[in-house]
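Box 3.1. Reading complex inputs
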Amino acid sequence: MKTSRLFTKTLILIVILFGVIATATSLLFGWTLYRSLTMEYRSKGIAIAKGVADSSAEILLNRDLATVQAAIDQFDEIDGVGYVFVSDAHGEIVAHTFVPAVPKEVLSLIKQSRTSPSTGNAVTTTLKIERLGDFIHIYAPILAGVGGFVHVGMDQSFIRAQIWSTVAKQQGIMFAIFILSIVAAYILVNRISRPLNQLADYTRSLVTHDFAAGLNIPAAIEALPQKSKDEVGRLAESFMDMERTLQKYLKDLEETTASKERIESELKIAHEIQMSMVPKTFPPFPDRREFDIYATLVPAREVGGDFYDFFFIDDQRLCFAIADVSGKGVPASLFMALTKTMFRATGGRQNATPEIILSRLNREICRDNESCMFVTIFCCVVDARTGQVEYSNGGHNLPYVLSDGAVMALPKTGGIALGVTEAADFHAGQLLLKPGDQLILYTDGVTEAMDKDDQLFSERRLETALQGMNGLSSKEVIAKVVKEVQRFSTGAPQSDDITMLVLGYVGPKETAEGTLSVLLRNDLSEFQRLNQIVTEFAERHGLASELVFRVTLVLEEIVTNVILYGCEDGLEHEISVRLSWEDPYIKLEVEDDGRPFNPLEAPPPDTGKPLAERQVGGLGIHLVREMMDELEYRRENDKNLLTLKTKTRES
Amino acid sequence: MMTLSGVALLRAFPLCLILLTPASVRAEELLVGMSAAFTGPSRGLGIELYRGSMAYLEPVNRRGGIHGKKIMIRAYDDGYNPTPAIRNTIKLINDDDVFLLVNYVGTPTVTRVLPLLKNYRQKHIYLFFPFTGAQPQRQPPYSDFVFNLRASYHNETEGLVDHFVRLGRTKIAVFYQADAYGRSGWEGVKDALARHGLKINGEATYRRGTEFSASLKQQVDILKAAGPEGIVSIGSYAACAALIRDARDSGWKVPIANVSFVGSVPMAKLLLQLGKAKGVDYTSNLINSQVVPSYEDMSLPAVKEYRQRMDEYGAKVPHPWGASDYQPDQYSFVSLEGFLNAKLLVQILSHLGAVPAKNRIKETVENLRNSDLGIGSLISFGPDKHQGSDRVYYTTLEDNKFVPLASWEQWRK
């Protein structure tokens, strides 16, 4: 049986307590008893001595020692009397009770007492007799000393024996009480510690308890509050309350979690639905090479309020828009769905110009706008043949135009967000896109992206990011900007939907279809991409394989030289390669931002370089010169531009 | 001859009387009371005293008693202790309504009973011939109520001391019982020595009730240390025998004199038994003073009569003290004293006449002069003389018998 620790502590306490009590009481009691008994005995002795003294006078005068002896013999029988004797006026002992003889200490005492004057009162002193013990010695005068003295010796060992026996009895009782206390304490502590242990076990079992299975309070615990109406009972009650409450909370939590999961799964579905609402396939119009369109939408939550859309109004005109619904989450997404549908509807009607589209859209939105939501929108229509853009803005961030590496914000048209008032006015703006220009549309999720210090990405950073993006495809532009935004806002949660739409105007059909460009890094491994566009260009224009071969060779040579010699500073550089059809020529343009370097003047191939580094066995510039009809090198805008033309030799 | 059952009947007599007999028969009896040691180390005294008295009384009673009244002894045991003695006396006086008290044994007992006599003085209760030579009952204020036959311890010790001193033994030690009896003897020795200008030279005590088996070596050592030339022993026969044994065992041959209360015959019995067992003679250098003549002294008519009566009485021991282990003495000084006590008592009672009255006891006894008990000296009492005899006899052990001491010269220094 495990001894309760509580009980051990209690036991130790009791032992110490009793030890202290026992010692203290023994000492006190013994001392008090000693003092009282000594006084008692002293008075007893005095009484006897005086009694005998007073009555002995006549007997002594009668010279009847036998009677004196008989008298003192009587007193000798009294408890505590050690000896009695009578001395006469000459100090001779005439009667005594000593066996076998009068001790020498007594004789010397008598001698002493004779020398001190008799006062008529009893004199008390102490006497230690060898082999007999310690005595309180009292002597009283007979006839004021004339008749002699009566001496009484009270045996102190009697007192001591009394004390010891009484103390022993007291200690015996103490001990009995001590044992009883131990038993009582044991029972009591057990009464406390057992339920406590039960509670402890119960609590431990709670940990592994399957709350779903329902309450499982052991009967013993349940009975505790009734059994002990004390702290233990209260504790048991609290524990049971705790379990019940836990049970309830867990049940609620289960339900909440279940409903949350339901909502989440619904939101997931909603997200998928929403994602499917915005055009997701790029390029959206693969056969319309006039445009390089790319867009991305990264919602802040599962569903968001941003959208973009584009569709061809007619054969030549593309209508596209980017919009931002006020708010985030499910409300915004529902509104967004509504808005997008209405946008398509209004855009599909006759006489659809951006300002008309926005007006109509606005009216529609305002009509049933009980939730008072609004949406900012930028809408434009671009003519595929001319690059002419007509646009209208409804409170949205004004797009940028990227043209030849320059970034320019469109001027305002002064329209407000849709859904605010039916009476809003919308105005149109014009813009002409040159081939190669790109229109950058975005929502404030880009510019208002925050970093962990709550700094906004801002238009400035967007402009900075856009600057220098020359010759990149729309997809690449967006990727770079998004990457930039995400890098900026690392550590902070996405606060708003990030939406971007880039419309690149390649040029009129013929040109568009005929032009292909690619942006390479100054790394020889980029040749694969180079080959890809060459292959595609060749497919598009049905080029002969001999021509393809020639073009590939030339481009590889040029690019290699650019990489090895023009960009030998070890930094990353961009090399733009563009293939276009300029009847009857194929135009190759290689542009790089390395040091001023004309690839045509590259040094002869270095045979020292290992073969592996040279994917192309360095034919030399003269081969290039051989293969190309026209060659031109220009250094402009800190870039090297090499233009090569060759006639197509149709097979 | 009275049988044991007869004695039992006798003891139950008062009861039977009340039940069966008319008052007149009761009137034919004279009851005397006795409280003595019938148990304990000194039982020999009570028993022998009783036996001696009964040895004389039985024939008297057989002959019709005194003036037609039989003399009956109502005896109670006090074990030689004062408190029972007091109780017994009260009972004898109040319940048994005895005529007088007789044959009490011991100084401590008698000394404590004396005040009772004074207390019941209206009843005229007198104590006759107590077996003790102490002073309390020989001196005022209690001497009025007591009549002694035997010589006192003072007489005895005086005689012993005188003899020792005359022998040139002036250093006398005292061995005595630590009570009134011993103190009395001690006082006697002290006074006797003082008359010679001497002091007691060494003393040792022992507790009353000490058995023969107890060791008295301590006392022997104490006495030895004082270097006495003679020891006077005032004790019980058991203790005195023990002293003699331990003294002789330690090689000490000093003459030891015992007073009469030391039951000589029982003491001799103990010493002879032990001596035989150990092959040692413990009986030499002993003087026992007696207050009655030697029972071997056939020259005395009383002795002859005594012996005859004792033979007739036989080995009866009073019920219920006839404990199986008590062997009565054929003859002893104690029973001789009891015999003489009874003889004198009968004389006194006859002097009281046919209608004995308690209030005339005193004057009757005090008028007794020169009564001859056949012991060679005459007994007399008087108003100031309540002790009948002053004679002290000296005996010694010879051939396992107590014989009169012929000469002290063997101990001349």
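In summary: Chain B touches chain A through 28 residues (CB under 8 Å).
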